[in-house]
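USER:
Try writing one entry.

ASSISTANT:
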Amino acid sequence: MTYYFYPLLEDKFTDSSHRDTFRQILNSPKPAATENLLYLHIPYCHDMCRFCPFHVRVDKGSEIYDRYTEVLCKEMELVAKLPYVSDMSFKAVYFGGGSPSIFSVNNLRKIFAHLSKCFQIEPNAEISFEGEPKTLSDPARLDLLKEYNVKRISFGLQTYDERMRELFNIAATLQDVDNCTKNARERGFEDINVDMMYDLPGQDITALNYDLAHLKDHDFDSLDYYNLHYFAFPKKIKMGMKDGTIPSKPSQQMHFALQQQVRTTLKEMGYYDVADPIFAKKPQVCEYFRLIWGGGKGDHSAEMIALGSSARGYVNGYCYMNLGNTEQYLKTVEAGQLPLEKLSLSLPTPENRGAAFFVKFFEIDKAHEKAIQSIPQNVWDFWRQNGLIYETAQSWKLSEVGKLWTTNMMLDTFEPHQREAAMTSLGFVEDRPGVRTGSF
């Protein structure tokens, strides 16, 4: 399981006092300045990829997109007026989904214009835009993104293997990928990111090398190279893996071999291993990932304001999530109310958030002493004695062996209640084929 938010979300609001405490925070001035990220979620896709675990809706037709645009703009107004948010400035903005690129140019223009009107976006802010290659290749959409200073575009490529693309129900073609890349380059986009996956059904080193060779030909600026999670697959596919009509999940040994092959080959291709699981031609991770994971290398202070159905954020020690049911989200905001659905508990030791996310950056600065101390001593000793971490003058770093175990190491850093919540959520997804959870 990959964790993007910590502390973990509880099921709904735990009780009325918990909810009221969070609302009181939002309605009070922000106590201290932080680095901030603004996240906008557009949950619609033209088709449903069978592996996708996110909160997405396949709603075709402009009417629902027009309504969502109006409501998202209204939510911006509600959130921007909150005393906690009103003085915040944002170093990065991220449009995620879903596939934001399926919205029309007119709707996207409304959203960008309202964003600039409601929030203080820093002049050199990193604005990232997620899409799918078919619609993101549209010249008019790309021109609009350039007009509003989008610096980074990203889309899901996943694999060049046509058999796997058909199995996963990936609607965009490889020609769409080529068109999107070509049109974006022609307009001066210098940071094109793609999502890739390994650990595919039946995949071995030869099959992986096929994908890696094609990536070399395209020379993307950065890659998010995930291992495939199988819990979102529908029951039919899981049954096919059992009866042999669909290749099975690679073994644990093959998983590690594939992971090492990805890391070794991408380094040979000129990519830096900047974070887990992110590779880039520049030696630093993008601002989106740096800020969503607390600020980097043990920092825990960066905050994130969330907008849109099922969007997730982090403020003043609490993670929160907007209503995942899109219709409920629309009606709630139309009624002038904040669309909050879930909320985490706060951590007894706030710095433990930095401890949990340092694994993502492969390094923790020694200056973050409280974060280091929040990791159980027996865990720290085990890591050292087994060569998972090593000491430098200014920091502790993950070894190449440690990088193979980032998910386990991150879970090891969790405080007891958070570890219990993680085990509960893992049991939930394992028992429900095809479940759509969003990011944990």
